[in-house]
Amino acid sequence: MHTLRSGDATIAYDIDGDGDPLLLIMGLGADRRMWMLQLPVLTQHFRCITFDNRGIGDSTAPEGPFTMEQMAADALAVLDEAQVERAHVLAISMGGAPMHPQWYYNLKAHPECELGDEKFLASEITDPDEYARVYGLAEQVYAGWSDYRLKTDPIGRRIPVFRLKPR
User: Fold this and answer.
1) Residue 88 three-state SS
2) Are residues 69 and 140 in the same domain?
3) Fewest beta carbons within 10 Å, which of 37, 71, 121, 156?
4) Mean pLDDT of successive 10-residue stretches along the chain, which has 167 residues
């Protein structure tokens, strides 16, 4: 575990694996250890950077409410400390708020991507039945997605899901 100062908080982070940088941002309320089931696969293809949001896990909790701007600045501080100018980003829930889109690759805007030496074309799943099937599989890996769906379906919000096809 490494730490750094970001404003009034100490942020804990880890780096593991080789390849293009991949910043993994967990949603509010869970720490970087929530990525433990995905890391064995991801670290084979990426230099994975995980961190605890301020007030979570091994990061400190300064007084007062936290803003999205502060939390985005924390993510940028981790990238700066890791000497990363641009990274792929995998985020869950609040962690996916696009505060600084210039430093991540957007699968919708840039659908041609690579995992290690393999090339893929990303396409968003828009068919309602296929979306429900794939989202159901994701819920088996991360139970928090069920809670997210219960809270956001009534307001028409959803997590985008992409399929990667070899090219």
Assistant:
1) strand
2) no
3) 156
4) 95 95 84 88 91 92 82 91 87 59 57 71 85 77 66 71 78
